[in-house]
Amino acid sequence: MSGVSDRFQMWSLPVIAFWMLLTGTQNGDSLKNKIPKNPEARMNLSQIISYWGYANEKYDVVTEDGYILEIYRIPRGKRHFGTASHRPIVYLQHGLSASAFNWIGNLPSNSLAYILADAGCDVWMGNSRGTTWSRRHMSLSPNSEEFWAFSFDEMAKYDLPATIDFIVKKTRQKELYYLGHSQGTTIAFISFSTNPKLAQRIKMFFGLAPVVSVKHVKSPPKKLFPFLESLVKVLFHKKDIFSQNKFNQFITNKICNLHIFHWLCKSIFFSTYGASLRNLNESRLDVYMANYPGGISVQNLIHWIQLIISGQLQAYDWKDPVLNMKHYNQVIPPLYNVTRMTIPTMLWSGGEDLVADPLDVDSLLPNISNLIYHKRIPYYEHMDFCVGMDAPQQVFYELLNAIKKNIQT
Length: 409
Fold this sequence. Notes:
Layout: H1 12-24, H2 28-32, H3 45-51, E1 57-62, E2 67-74, E3 89-93, H4 112-118, E4 122-125, E5 136-137, H5 152-171, E6 176-181, H6 183-194, H7 196-199, E7 202-208, H8 225-236, E8 240-241, H9 246-255, H10 259-273, H11 285-291, E9 296-297, H12 298-310, H13 321-328, E10 345-350, H14 358-364, E11 371-377, H15 384-387, H16 391-408
Parallel strand pairs: 3-4, 3-6, 6-7, 7-10, 10-11
Antiparallel strand pairs: 1-2, 2-4, 2-5, 8-9
Helix pairs in contact: 1-10, 5-6, 8-12, 9-11
């Protein structure tokens, strides 16, 4: 889960930027002084991958309940040719309000997808329902409330099984490696602990900034969350929030590339998403902001608010005994028991992470039945695991070595 779920500061960007634009027009030189643009800021995911010289494929996966998910594949690295049947498959799953961009957002030497592909892996990247690249349904329109009636419950129940089943059939391999960031770990814990058949297809589970409990989220104060739940419903009804649109593109490509606004965009990005200033490639700020946020259903955001209030990992509470009975055959939403997942698991967490709080991670560790490795990086914040400049040294190479050792044994 990215910090966007519990920090609403980014909504101040349009207002502040507009005010600064008005006052800044008095100084023509300051507006003409632009920061060089990265061409990827105007590209879709396939174009970004191709821009760096990597082969890539895009597929549509249809879930049991009719959602159409776009998934992306980098079948080989620059020095690999053909499709080797023995090439290890690695599936990468993003977190809340993100997308597959998480894994290709930096230069190839710092992006996990490219590093894995160049090391000989067959890399697949998912996009959860409702995010930028997965906003289609067999019969429902994204303009309808029915389309947005989902949370991470459905991602675990429908999205993940459908995606993994597709990959297994396409590659004709029986198993793959799973890597999730934040909410990408949450849906894995749920799915692999409730769906043993699916869990059998996972060789190893890599979790970055793992989130099961959000009991210790520090900001805003917990007592405000019941109020926030009601406020979100009033403001955004039952549809989506934090979605990419033309105004986001305007802010990214017309405002944030001006020197007088660059500091503002940088501050908003750091405070909203949880990334440390010293560990981010500032020259790619326009690329980051062109792809974040990826959108959240209001129901999913409310589900996270419910978890913060309850301090437990449980299914979505419909706040109506009749509806809960309809969905769960009980009046209270069921709890998820992550101890039932027995997949070999490696975790990396951050000491400065405000979403995957160290105290919550510590409470999770004893409940993982087959934990083989955990590393806490003291200065890491939430998004450092995806876009941090030293993420290859701190995380990526370690998990790649684990894959190589597993192949050899």
